[in-house]
Amino acid sequence: MTPHRPAMRRAPPVLGCLIALLAAAAPAPAADRAERTAARLRDQALAGEAIAYGFVSELTTRFGPRPAGSAAEHAAADWAAARLRALGFDRVAIEPFPLVGWTRGEESAEIVGAHPQRLAAAALGGSPATPASGIEGEVVPFDSLEALRAAPVGSLEGRIVLLNQRMPRVAGGYGALVPGRLFAPGEAADRGAVALLLRSLGTGTARFAHVGSTRYRDGRVPLPSFALAGADADQIERLLALGETVRVRLHSQAAHVDTHSQNVVAELHGREAPDEVIVLAAHLDSWDAGTGAIDDGAGVAIVVAAAELIARLPQRPRRSLRVVLYGAEEVAQPHTPETGGAAYLARHAAEVGDHVLAMESDFGAGAVQALSLPPGVAASDFGRALYRVLTPMAIVPSREPPGRGGVDIAPLVEAGVPAFVLRQDGSRYFDFHHTADDTLDKIDRAELDQNVAAWAALAWLAAQTGADFRALSAAEPAE
């Protein structure tokens, strides 16, 4: 006897349409597996299974500061290459390029005359030495680069310019004031000044100078130029407000030396499309005051740890993942603007057309808060899958476009390679940036691991997909 079966009921039309839409939106099996793997990589990193903290701890402890072209930077590159080989990367190479290095030497700054006192100051990168006896002059303050440019030629003869621009604790504050560090030495020299003091580009209240490179002109920085701690800039400002004439004496033994830097390149060879390359970038050099923990030891650890998590998987990703630890990001050059980023582009010019994506970590270890994708990528199946994986970490779509992606990968982006940007919490970054306080204790381990989680998930999905990021980046998405 055949059992009675109730008649099948048809789904209501609206429900039927919804089911059809969900079925159409559901990932294909391969895409679904890739997304599940990305989520697993994310969760491993969040659980503390990544090597990032140990990597940055060893890097900053063994080598300390790593100025571009220095013995410490060279040794750090050798160590990093050896560690990458031991971690199972398929191809590891050190790619050297020539560099004009800069050394700080002994230096000092002080107010002289009726109210003598020492100043917390440090020469800007590339700045020339003073005469052996130092250089002395009356301070003339300016509150902006534009105000300095408005001063008549010859009006600052024999004087020392103080460019006293305060940096706000807002996104974009640093970028808005960097032109002062780059161009004020030349503008001051054009008006007859003998030296420059620059209020440090930083947001902290610690009495440290925030250093950084300045701009060469005709193969040299035009005059001795120093970063000055904010508290000391305020001190000079108050003396001037009291009607005092402020004279400062500066002394520097800075020097230039012919040397080299290098990029460290390590790859996980793609199993199906090995010529399609995704670059994961950070820079190995640092300034000489601290140990370069947030700038950019953290970035080095993030990209290495993300790729290493992927290397543990049973199979390599479909596309190749290439970790590039750039050299000489922090410095300018006397005769060319080119450093590690340009050196990489020149060496790999023949294959840049096959680079499908470039990303850079160079903003410390603050938690990732947002993701910048080209609009066409964000609206794609890849973009939707990526947001599903990142959303549980409170990472949201950014309204800022990726732009040049970062200093090191900018030459690749300008050559047509798309950039994605994982945007971090930078609210305290410029408290320590380019100072003696850039040390390992400023890194929060949980936030570092959160970065690795986001990077590993993104890198895996990008390496597994067949999406053409160049075409998607050029496309106008539907509303």
From TrEMBL:
Pfam families: Peptidase_M28. It is found in: Endoplasmic reticulum; Golgi apparatus; Lysosome; Secreted. InterPro entries: CPQ, Peptidase_M28. Keywords: Carboxypeptidase, Endoplasmic reticulum, Glycoprotein, Golgi apparatus, Hydrolase, Lysosome, Metal-binding, Metalloprotease, Protease, Secreted, Signal, Zinc, Zymogen. Residues 1-30 form the signal peptide. Gene3D superfamilies: 3.50.30.30, Zn peptidases (3.40.630.10). Residues 263-458 form the Peptidase M28 domain. SUPFAM superfamilies: Zn-dependent exopeptidases (SSF53187). Homodimer. The monomeric form is inactive while the homodimer is active. PANTHER family: CARBOXYPEPTIDASE Q (PTHR12053:SF3), PROTEASE FAMILY M28 PLASMA GLUTAMATE CARBOXYPEPTIDASE-RELATED (PTHR12053). This is Carboxypeptidase Q. It comes from Luteimonas endophytica.
